[in-house]
Design a protein that fits this description.
Length: 99
């Protein structure tokens, strides 16, 4: 499991079947997640306020968001700090950014 703390953006590659956690100290109004790889597997993720606990995602898991291969997803945040937890069964390149 890799853990990163950043202010605005993280760009990395997932290790298959291993959760990455990206923690943002800045407030999150919009969350943008890109699966930058053009082949392979979708990325599943959860996000939320770390003080309330953010469940770990699972591949094809219930209550997980998904970003398909080569796609970008934008979500509205709640204006607080946020943890994003990501997993895939492939070595997917990803970007997580906040606005």
């Amino acid at each position: 499991m890799a853990s990163y703390t950043v202010n605005k953006a993280k760009h990395a590659v997932l290790t298959p079947d291993t959760v990455d956690t990206v923690s943002f100290g800045d407030s999150v109004s919009f969350l943008i997640i890109s699966n930058r790889t053009t082949s392979g597997s979708p990325i599943f993720f959860t996000f939320g306020d770390p003080s309330k606990g953010v469940p770990a995602p699972t591949v094809n898991g219930d209550d997980c968001y998904v970003v398909a291969i080569g796609m970008t997803l934008s979500l509205v945040g709640d204006g607080t700090a946020s943890d994003v937890k990501l997993i895939s069964n492939g070595a997917q390149a990803y970007s997580v950014m906040v606005v």
